[in-house]
Amino acid sequence: MSEVILEVRDLVKHFPIRQGILFKRTIGQIKAVDGVSLDLHKGETLGIVGESGCGKSTLAKLLMNLEKPTSGEVRYQGRDVLRLNPADQRRLRRNIQLVMQDPYTSLNPRMTVGDIVGEPYEIHPEVAPKGERRRKVQELLDVVGLNPEHINRYPHQFSGGQRQRIGIARALALKPEVIVCDEPVSALDVSIQAQVMNLLDQLQTDFNLSYIFIAHDLSVVRHIADRVGVMYLGKMVEVGTDDDIYVRPTHPYTQALLSAVPVPDPTARQRKAVIRLEGDVPSPANPPSGCRFRTRCWKAQEICSVEEPLLQIRPTSGHPSACHFAQERDVVHAAG
Amino acid sequence: MSDIKVKTAPVLGVDGRSAGHLLEVDNLHVEFRTRDGIAKVINGVSYHVDAGETLAVLGESGSGKSVTAQTIMGILDTPPGFVTDGAIRFRGKDLLTMGKDERRLVRGEGIAMVFQDALSALNPVFTVGFQIAELFRKRRGMSRADGYKRAAELLDLVKIPAASARLRDYPHQFSGGMRQRVMIAMALALDPEVLIADEPTTALDVTVQAQIMDLLAEIRRDRNMGMILITHDLGVVADVADRIAVMYAGRIVEQADVHALYGKPCHPYTLALLDSLPRLDLKGQELNTIKGLPPNLLRIPSGCAFHPRCTMARDICLTQRPALVELGGVRSSACHFAEELYGRE
Fold this sequence. Notes:
The structure holds 2 protein chains of 2 kinds.
Chain A: E1 4-19, E2 25-41, E3 45-49, H1 56-63, E4 71-76, E5 79-80, H2 86-93, E6 96-99, H3 113-123, H4 133-143, H5 160-172, E7 178-182, H6 190-207, E8 210-215, H7 218-224, E9 227-232, E10 235-241, H8 242-246, H9 252-260, H10 268-271, H11 302-306, E11 312-314, E12 317-321
Parallel strand pairs in A: 3-8, 3-9, 6-7, 7-8
Antiparallel strand pairs in A: 1-2, 1-4, 4-5, 9-10, 11-12
Helix pairs in contact in A: 3-4, 3-5, 4-5, 5-6
Chain B: E1 23-34, E2 37-49, E3 54-58, H1 65-73, E4 81-90, E5 93-94, H2 100-109, E6 111-114, H3 118-121, H4 128-140, H5 144-157, H6 163-166, H7 176-188, E7 194-198, H8 206-223, E8 226-231, H9 234-240, E9 243-248, E10 251-257, H10 258-263, H11 268-275, H12 315-319, E11 325-328, E12 331-333, H13 338-343
Helix pairs in contact in B: 4-5, 5-7, 7-8
């Protein structure tokens, strides 16, 4: 495999819960991200899936250096991002960019498309001299499949899919190496989703980009990702290649998640294994002891409440899985 | 196939159509009169649902699927929305021409609705128990205590743990999935014969979505209710629907039994939609896309509204609007080349 470009080690982010008006006391911690490690290789797409509240968006913010982690390290090309001096940090930020979920709120309605896509050059003027900016922005619009002549239009004059393209053009402006995509297609209609995903695919090949692709839609992630990590309550519970996760999942949560995804094929009604989880995801302020999934798991035994299962390769799992009772089970293709 | 529309003896007789269906939307037209012009949101939609079956209405945003439901329920905002033509018959009686009081009786008891966003559909300043019990007090003349008792039974029915204790909770104290259950409980309170579920799981996570869809299917079976499921999710539809109506630009472009539709879509739009899906069980290379954008309803393209995005479009599609033609069985498709698509291998 190619070189590792982004390395995350034991990343932790706890948000304090405060109470009181004048004298604020900390009465607890929301454990949004609680010890996540991952490697991103050059040119690959790492998919992160999980339900709301599992910490995937906080992870994105930590990677972008928009939130300070409580502890842990983010290393970009071997250098610890958090310990850089401000000048180095600015330079480095050029290389990691973000595409956000909601194309309706992530673009300033009072700025023209040219200003939006060109704004990164204001912050990093060394990338493009003033005289060249307009031409560069038009190039970018062309690259993402928008009409370069629309440079003076405002966001409301574009449809959802086109706005997402504007967001992507903005992320590309500084020629980054890594793009963090936080639910980039979930706000779009089905017929538009495919267009944007193909665009992301195309750009990856053209510019040799590495993606961290965060989404809750497992079919979307399967389509685009080379490797996939599954998160639950701030922890990574299973990591592997897309076949590891989709064909040979070993963590019960992954299996339940896959089995819950409706397959657009009515003949699959009988074939599909049905695993129904009870209840909701517990609060990240007070996660269960031991394995965090045990309160909803049908395999849970005493050891699960005492000992936290580590994310590692196990005798019954060829790829890292954080379950004491990890076992392969194909829930998508055959009745289990 | 010739016109085999009248299958049972017409009861109403006036317009010569069958009144055999529990709920029937007939050639409905709705327009929105806005400052920018008239948006033709629904342009001749007809569908029906019978007891015990699930009809899925599938479409992208702006296709008119929710507006049809709102018109059935009589909660269309007027202005800007106006019904310009058509009928909605429930048990043979036209809801659009009946009096206000009579129509109110149908709402809740005849047809009930579950909305997408439970947090904004429930009243935040009253407890959940109060909101459900209110139905029984107002409509059934029950006492406060009896109302609360029935409310607890309903919350129990939709599998909310510790139902009687949770009656005193406010909507914000419930999780997303539980809130959706409260909405379902409320819709079921007066034993409706038809339940309209408008994107009931779109705001929920997949594992919770599966729970809610199971619950809805179970309730429909137990009560032999008719269900109209409005959604954009082709996966959910494949899981639960009996029949499907696909909408595009305010019209039904294809209607078929679920197996027939997924097995052999007979409208280019359905075909392209199914083709553009990333599939969990298949990993393809490039996704097939539908070019262009859904139409602006203020300026619906001439002829077939789908023609600017269609790969099969020919001259006739620009000028002539294709009628919804029957293809055999319960299938119909609004495409000039429907027969061709139907005949293919």
